[in-house]
Queue: 2 jobs
Job 1
Amino acid sequence: MSKQAPIYGFNTNQRLFVGYTLAILVDLVVLNLFNEYWTFVSFSSFSVSLAAAVLMQVLLKASIKAEHKIAAYFMAKEGVWPKVMRGVSSYIILVGSKFLILEVLNIVFGNNIQFTGPWNGVIAFIAVVFAILLAEKIVAKIYFSLNDSELHTEQVA
């Protein structure tokens, strides 16, 4: 007599939890690598960098969600003008949100986080954000490449 071993999967809440936890950990690694190896980025402690990673993740996801929502609004309309407005609004949200995030970090953490260098640290901050997005993309690519091509169950004796 044989029975099937259970297939373990994730429900939506579990996938979201694992996804956001992984993204925050990736952000944390990137922030601390910049802190250690680039003088333009400084965190007063690991705890501050962890809190910043969580806050940045929330704010980055919110800005991307806002951009998608506004893009969908303009994509539903016909003509050239809505397409132009979609491009302009996407640019404003995706670039402008970085300045907003930088200011929120400044308000929340004050001197515990410092981005210095050209343009009063804006270049350093944007470099960090792009590095975070690139690292998240690489981790996601690795994760999805590990997907089983077939779902199967093992026979257990």
Job 2
Amino acid sequence: MTAQNNGAARDSNTQKHLVVAGREFVLVGTAHVSKESMEEVELAVEKENPDSVAIELDQKRLASIEDPEAWRKMDIIKVLKNKQGFLMLSNLILSAYQKRMGQGTGVKPGQEMIAAINKAKSLNISQQMVDRPIAITMRRAWAKNSFWGKCKLLGVLIASAFAKEEAAPDEIENLKKTNEMDAMMGEVAEYFPKVKEVLIDERDRYLASHIWQCPGNKVLAVLGAGHLKGVQKHISDIAAGTESPDCSDISEVPPKSLASKIAMWIIPLLIIAVIAAGFVIGGRKKGFDMLSAWVWWNAALAGIGALIAGAHPITILVSAIGAPLTSLCPFIGIGIVAGIVQALICKPKVQDMETMQQDATSIKGFYKNRLLRVLLVFIFSSLGSSIGTFLAGANIVKIIASFFDKVVAFVKGLFGK
């Protein structure tokens, strides 16, 4: 029996053992809101006594778990200016969803990771944070999705924010079983192939690479159960020399392509040119109709979005006035403008920051909390303006069709018969 097979003989649903290249790796799979997982990781660290313990966290997530008061230091206006509004909203929704899932178990999300860290500290064992920063993961997931994929992702996030679903302790524990996990991963891959690629497949590779680089001959890694199979395969491939431990290609947000950079300018300029052409070729009435369509659809739907978010009347007005202009600007969206205005008019209080995570678990909480309402204003005014842009474009095309013969005649006149 080989060393690797000897390790495999000790495997279970939640633990995988690899002995490769003269080193031993123990992978412990957890459910993030499971009391049993907390107890299992503590026992595993004590029993295995590894040289280092690898944790599926990055430094920022570790800091936020260890210091719940960190939210107090947040500047929502700075978050919006840095174009991190969607990222913050996504983190809050996912955190709130996990919190609801854990209500039946009495365990906060990520407590099994803290349990492993604390046990390692008590035994003077090195702790290594081996996960990719959440900001990079979320931005890669957003960047890799098509427009339709982004819409589906946004819809699921909003639905998750307002869902009342809770899970019983036995349902949480079932998630650690291989067949249950494979079925869930299959559903995610079918509905969100790009999301699974970034959140699961890429992170499997990233985690394996950084677990491999942990110091010592024996490493114990604490991971979500969904990563066990993938991380095990990548570590085996790295040990066999068929895969490089370098994962720098997935450690950054992919840069925008030249085509997308050009499109950022071409599309707004094209819209302006088409409306201008409407005045020149179709006449004053057609040109005015096209301009009105652009202003009306953008203004109306951005304003409605802000209204749905419970924005201040001045914020709604700013959203309506600003949307037709910001829709033509590659650098700033109406969501950022509306969110900043809302934050300035209805300034979040210390209490809003203290209760933000709890308030994010309910619809009422989102509207009651001033800080969360800023994020609602940001997302709904942006969504309204985006829909308005497409409807305005369709309306403009319809108007152009009504005098298309004049457009053809004008083009022929430019280039001769």
